Amino acid sequence: MSHSNHTHTVIENEWITLKDGTRLAARIWMPDGAEQAPCPAVLEYLPYRKRDGTAPRDESTYPIFAAAGIVGVRVDIRGSGESDGVIDGEYTPRELSDGLEIIDWIASRPWSNGRVGMMGISWGGFNCLQIAALKPPALKAVISIASTVDRYNDDIHYKNGCHLSAQLSWAATMLAYQSRSPDPQLVGDHWKDMWLKRLENEPFFLEDWLEHQRRDDFWRHGSICEDFDGFPVPALVIAGWADGYRNTPIKAIEGLGQKAKAMIGPWVHKYPHFAWPKPRADFHGEAIAWWNRWLRDEDNGAEHFPQMRAYILDGPKPALRRDRDPGRWITKQTWSTPEMNELRISGNGQLGPVSTNPVGVGEVYLCSPLDTGTASGEYFTLKPDAEMAGDQRIDDAGSLVFDSVVLSEPEDYLGQPELRLTLSCDAPTANLIARIVDIHPDGTATRVAFGVLNLSHRNGNAEPSPMVPGLMTEISLRLDACGYRFGKGHRIRLALSTAYWPMVLPSPENPGLTIDTASLTLALPRLGDHQEIDLPEPANPDPLPHYDQHSPSITRRTVERDMTHGLTHYRIYEDTGLIEHPETGNVTQDIRDEVWSIAANDPLSMTGTSTWTCRAQGHGRSVMTVSTASLSCTADAWITQASVQAFEGDETIFEKRFAKRIPRDLM
């Protein structure tokens, strides 16, 4: 059977019945003739609604796979889209168990050659690794994009014990997604009963997440770093420097060895064939080669891909929109621990090599305004605009900064920087944020890498311990990965702060830190031996289908400083506009309105509220949900509230509220 140029059929909805009778909804792209000459299949398994939510990206990829003789199977998780039941959280044992049943179902079909691949971005990138770790016999390979091997430390919840605001944002997003109705065209007349059951029983995820502020069994579940040796299949692991999930490819190849292959581009949180900033990568070509090697034993050399392929950024500047970042692609056939370039603080306060006789500038007190961080951008970015980190001079103003001399030659780095220093704290805990910044000759400041640490988690995230106020304590912090060239004429800046709001929520007090500058060492990972390559870009510069747009999309991010009341407000407003799918006739619109507020000297003033309005129309159905989630705090508790309202036409058919007070645990 030829592996290219197949015609195919789209099965708009196929029911997969699980052992407990639950029906999961699948959309399938089937190569013609597969029952006569069985094909490999690729599963993507998500809660993001195949009928509308992920339809554009599905329709950009699975027809290409089908043309190559690969069946595409896109399944809605239990309780989402058109699937029966109610979701019970993220990456739960039931979700993974359902995934195992789906793989068995695929492998048993007459059109299947018995070999299954699994792929996804974000949620699907997570659960394909997690399900593979359970060793289903038919699953032979995975492609994981913008994911994590460590659910506690490299997701949107906590980072080295710091509480990320993305946790509320994502809980609000999931509340909105899970509140949306199934499509009557696919599920029939009982769609409303399904919807009401979903509304009545869906959880508010934030409550669960806040119950587990340490790295306990809740987070170890699904973190494949707990047993890299037991991971059974080849994994192609992909990420983007503009996204919060950039550490995973390096951690995967460090943990899995040659079983994993890494690719890191300049991208936001999107598939590489349509991601920004450019250059893009030919994801379809990469994926088809990967599937053909592991799902049909094609001798195409995919197992000999370099362990690391990375785009080394060459001094991109912050911009209103970053369409293309300068840089070059490099490979490392085998990854090894980078050689580190150690920088210290000299007697005149400059950041420089150890040989400059570092003596520091003594002890320095640091206590940042609590609204330091408004140029941080989003944790996970979907567009190359204000979601990406802005000019860092805004945040540098509230930080302690040390600059290198002007570089006489370019310096190239790839890997995770490390910071070591000795400090004391005025309270049992505080947050420490470190940023590495590229200072351009004109003064523009580009964030290269950053790391955050809740000081009570300095010795690990499972058993935090309070700082002893006033006691000098050694601290080490591994920053997020970067691939970056500091150009000739540029300077390297280290910026330290005790706040990074709204990305990182404040500790209960607003303590200062006393830093011994003579103790400070910043270790930057040298690029080392490598080869430069040309990585093909996709042949199609516009791969996503275009749907009918009945009203324009709107994006706004604003910072308001209320000088009268001493408050800073950070607002995010996103409106998809009214979009009609040309084949289904369904019309949808999603609006996110999120506001964070804080007083620059009061950590307990912090509040966040995220409201989603989701509309769906078509074929006699006109429904809307309004879901709101909010977070505030006291010195000893997090206070969560949420509500969901559902409307059919102008009639309110459902209302529900959540409210909980959850003790703070050293954060």
Give a written overview of the molecule:
With 667 residues, the chain is of the alpha+beta class. The chain has three domains: 8-161 and 215-330, Rossmann fold (3-Layer(aba) Sandwich); 166-212 and 548-581 and 585-667, no CATH class; 340-527, Jelly Rolls (Sandwich). The strands form five sheets. Strands 1, 2, 3, 4, 5, 6, 9, 10, 11, 12, 17, 22 and 25 form a 13-stranded mixed β-sheet that branches. Strands 26, 27, 28, 29, 30, 31, 32, 33 and 34 form a nine-stranded antiparallel β-sheet that branches. Strands 13, 14, 15, 18, 21 and 24 form a six-stranded antiparallel β-sheet that branches. The longest helix is centred in the first third of the chain and has 15 residues, at 93-107. The protein starts with 7 loop residues before the first strand and ends with a strand.
Task: Note the topology.
Blueprint: E1 8-17, E2 23-31, E3 39-46, H1 55-67, E4 71-76, H2 93-107, E5 112-121, H3 123-132, E6 139-145, E7 158-159, E8 162-163, H4 166-178, H5 184-187, H6 191-201, H7 205-210, H8 217-220, E9 235-240, H9 248-256, E10 260-265, H10 283-296, E11 308-314, E12 327-332, E13 340-345, E14 351-353, E15 363-366, H11 393-396, E16 400-403, E17 411-415, E18 418-425, E19 431-439, E20 445-454, E21 473-478, E22 482-486, E23 491-497, E24 513-525, E25 531-533, E26 548-549, E27 554-562, E28 567-575, E29 579-580, E30 587-599, E31 602-618, E32 621-633, E33 637-648, E34 651-663
Parallel strand pairs: 3-4, 3-5, 5-6, 6-9, 9-10, 10-11, 11-22
Antiparallel strand pairs: 1-2, 2-4, 7-8, 11-12, 12-25, 13-14, 13-24, 15-24, 16-23, 17-22, 18-21, 18-24, 19-20, 19-23, 26-29, 27-28, 28-30, 29-30, 30-31, 31-32, 32-33, 33-34
